[in-house]
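Predict the 3D structure for this chain.
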Amino acid sequence: MNFINIIGNDKVKELLTNSINSNNLVHSYMFVGPDGIGKKLFATELSKIVLCTSTEKACNSCSSCIKFNSNNHPDFTIIDSEDGKNIKIGQIRLLQEQISEKPIVSDKKVYIINNSDLMTVEAQNCLLKTLEEPPEYALIILILSNENKLLNTIKSRCTKISFNKLTSEDLQTYSRTNNLEINDTLLNICDR
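Done. Predicted structure below.
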């Protein structure tokens, strides 16, 4: 597993690692928490692990990992707002078309909807059908900071994983690892 390179949210690491090891991943997750704390990084790392075709997950040497590392994996898609304001129904319809096709390289297909709280109501209603009847090979990860913007019907079909902001100790570890100097005043400013 490769969550080891991600700082903070150790409970999330443990939960995801246990789910992977027990082959107990569900078809859809909601990664919820403050902006900028690594939800997308976790989702991307989970995607790489799920798509890896080696028994040593996220091996970095199988065809899947090589394609993933070069941002060229046909079974992995990130959807985000095109205009910075909304994720539109057309983007979700395209997801539905693509998700119905079987995986090419891996046994799974992974879709990350970044800033999914920007989905229009129409886009959410469109996504609902896919969440109700997902293909067995599909994994959908919704990344968001405000779950109140999602329809209850969407939330009820996803497993929620809550992320916490990084602690001062996490930030200090990061600064030491990357040879940065962060004093307590800067940490307090970042914590607001």
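The chain has one domain: 3-165.
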